[in-house]
């Protein structure tokens, strides 16, 4: 095993590939994997929350009560506000100045 630190290794890699090629933490994680015998270079899924929203359900919910906030819509769909905003944008719904959602 090498006594060179992850920082030194990342600097050597960066020197070879013209700067900014890899961050120290990436090197550290990679070498931890290699030391444990895991030579797979693919990232593993990380149990992130389900972000699937049925667009038809969301559209129907907005049509029934366009005055709902994104937080209320998110709670009803079981996702984050950010996810609801992304899907509202996809279905071309934007918040109007009067407080409801309208077609964009």
Give a nutshell description of this structure.
This protein has 104 residues and is mainly alpha-helical.
Helix content: 40-55%
Major sheet strand order: 1-2
- Kindly, what is the distance between the CA atoms of the first and last residues, rounded to a whole number of angstroms? 60 Å
Average pLDDT for all residues: 77
Q: What is the rounded Rg?
A: 23 Å
Q: Describe the largest sheet.
A: 2 strands, antiparallel
Number of helices: 5
Structural class designation: mainly alpha
| Number of DSSP-assigned strands | 2
The fraction of residues in strands falls at: 5-15%
Q: What string, H for helix and E for strand, traces the elements in order?
A: HHHHHEE
Q: Name the assembly state.
A: single chain
The tally of structural domains comes to: 2
The outline comes out as elongated
Q: Poorly predicted ranges (pLDDT <50, ≥5 residues)?
A: none
Give an overview of the whole structure.
By secondary structure, the chain is mainly α. The chain has two domains: 44 residues, no CATH class; 49 residues. 49% of the residues lie in helices and 6% in strands. A two-stranded antiparallel ribbon has the order 1-2. The longest helix is centred in the N-terminal third of the chain and has 12 residues. The radius of gyration is 23 Å and the shape is elongated. The model has no long low-confidence stretch (mean pLDDT 77).
């Amino acid at each position: 095993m090498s006594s060179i630190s992850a920082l030194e290794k990342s600097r050597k890699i960066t020197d070879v590939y013209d700067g900014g090629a890899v961050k120290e933490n990436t090197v550290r994680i990679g070498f931890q994997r290699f030391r444990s015998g895991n030579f797979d270079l693919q990232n593993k899924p990380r149990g992130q929350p389900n972000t699937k929203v049925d667009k038809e359900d969301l559209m129907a919910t907005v049509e029934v009560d366009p005055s709902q906030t994104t937080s209320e819509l998110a709670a009803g769909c079981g996702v984050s506000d950010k996810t609801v905003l992304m899907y509202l944008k996809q279905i071309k719904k934007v918040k109007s100045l009067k407080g409801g959602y309208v077609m964009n």
